[in-house]
Amino acid sequence: MSEIGDFGTVVLVVSIGFSLALLASRLSDRFPVPAPALFLIAAAVASDVFPALGDRLSIRTVERVGVVALIVILFDGGMKVGWRRFRRSAVPISVLGVVGTFATAGLVALAAHSLFGFGWTIAWILGAAIAPTDPAVMFSVLGRREVGGRSGTILEGESGANDPVGIALMVGMLDYATHHDASIGVVGLDFVIEMAVGLVVGVAGAWLLLEAMRRLPLGNEALYPLRTLAAAGVIYGVASVAHGSGFLAVFVAGLLVADERVPYKAEIERFHTSLASLAEIVAFVALGLTVEFSTLGRRDVWLDGLVLAVLLAFVLRPLVAGLLLLPVRLRRGERVFVMWGGLKGAVPILLGTLVVLSGVDQSERLYGIVFLVVAFSVVVQGTSIPLVARGLGVPMRMVEAEPWSISIGLRDEPHGVQRFLVAPGARADGTQIRDLPLGERAWISLVIRSGSPRQARGRTELLEGDEVLVLAPPEDEKALQLVFQQPARRAEPVAG
């Protein structure tokens, strides 16, 4: 019975911890402190007060937990962005995700070498560790706020795209540091191969997953989200075994699955969003539990970490993002918002564990610096995001929770049912339904405004933000998008 009692104690402590974490996420809606900051700080304090917590959690375990968490986070991040949104801002996302990651890592390496006396190899390892940003932290910081315009899409897309790049760069730098026969040329070639294989596996995996979701029904609707979770793991594993970037493959698969019509799509998305939130909590708690305040108290850790965090947030990130975004058409406020919004999170945690496991020189010092940079980014930058957006005029709206939903189960795919969100300035914005150029084949069956359904009548005037359910042939979708989602001057009548 003592074994059962001991395990019951573990279950009790873990369950209480998760309950407090959920409460903390609720408190972050009321107070301007992001939930990840609370998880990180609370875990660090708990490991110092109860040393046994940190002693039982090895760096190897944290690394494995971080890998699993990132698989979940990146797949969900890809689904949140979606291919349609991604391709509209594909150039700035790709440039920031690839070139920006290398440029940030290089500038951090230069600062670490010049200011703190690190050798060039160790300085580049530190730069690779803290260069990537994090999609889960961005979503957590925003909470129920939704950023309008291209800046939100760029930040979300960049944070998903630069994670695989940063991880591949770190793996290459650690290989260069620990193998005497490694060269920069070989590391660069390995990076290109890893990205290419990851991209191919991600595209192929998404295609196979979509075919399975459409053609292979399961016995219970609760199994559909589990199938996509298992598929994400398979995609990561296949890419990794093939010496590719499993993280890039998972993110690409999420992007391509996001906009496709498949059974139980809403349930799948809700499941992965919840799981990504849990993965984020686990990653930050694991980092907090494995950091000792005695290490953080060293001058060459806390001072270097604080200086580097301030330099990264106020100088290096704005410099890199600002230069790379010069050719991109953005309002000044949106440009500055992207420059400020590169938040650190689970990826630097994982990369910090890889540094310690590799056994490179000064690995414990590097791990402490990574902790301080992540903590500063989440607490200072994360807290300021809503205020900065408001001050820069970046559109941001609160998305109210909708705990009640009405759904209609259909045995076959409803090819003629389409949903549109009325965009500001669209032909439908401020227009009565009877005056819309819908043609004879399209019919508006339901309008949802501010979470409340309204019967669609001819005299009903549509407004920005209305969700409209339209019955129309699939081939009319592009023409209907001109009516509901494009500026009025570009609207065209739907072919009758």
Give an overview of the whole structure:
- By secondary structure, the protein is mainly α.
- It folds into three domains: 1-31; 34-398, Na+/H+ antiporter like fold (Up-down Bundle); 417-490, 2-Layer Sandwich (Alpha-Beta Plaits), CATH 3.30.70.
- The chain contains 19 helices and six strands.
- It has helices spanning 2-30, 35-49, 51-55, 59-81, 83-88, 90-116, 120-130, 135-142, 149-178, 184-215, 223-241, 246-258, 265-289, 293-296, 299-324, 332-340, 346-358, 363-392, 477-484; strands at 145-147, 396-398, 417-421, 443-449, 452-455, 467-471.
- It has a four-stranded antiparallel beta sheet with strand order 3-6-4-5, with helices on one face.
- It is globular and about 70 Å long.
- The relative contact order is 0.13.
- Mean pLDDT is 81; it is low at 490-496.
Q: Give the rounded overall mean pLDDT.
A: 81
Question: In what range is the share of β-strand residues?
Answer: 5-15%
What is the domain total for the residues? 3
Main sheet attributes: strand count, strand direction, barrel closure: 4 strands, antiparallel
Report strand order across the widest sheet: 3-6-4-5
Taking all Cα atoms into account, the compactness measure Rg is 24 Å
CATH class label of the largest domain: Mainly Alpha
Q: How far is it from the N-terminal to the C-terminal residue, by CA?
A: 75 Å
**Secondary-structure-derived class:** mainly alpha
Report the CATH topology name of the largest domain.
Answer: Na+/H+ antiporter like fold
Poorly predicted residue ranges: 490-496
Please, how many helices?
Answer: 19
Order of helices and strands: HHHHHHHHEHHHHHHHHHHEEEEEH
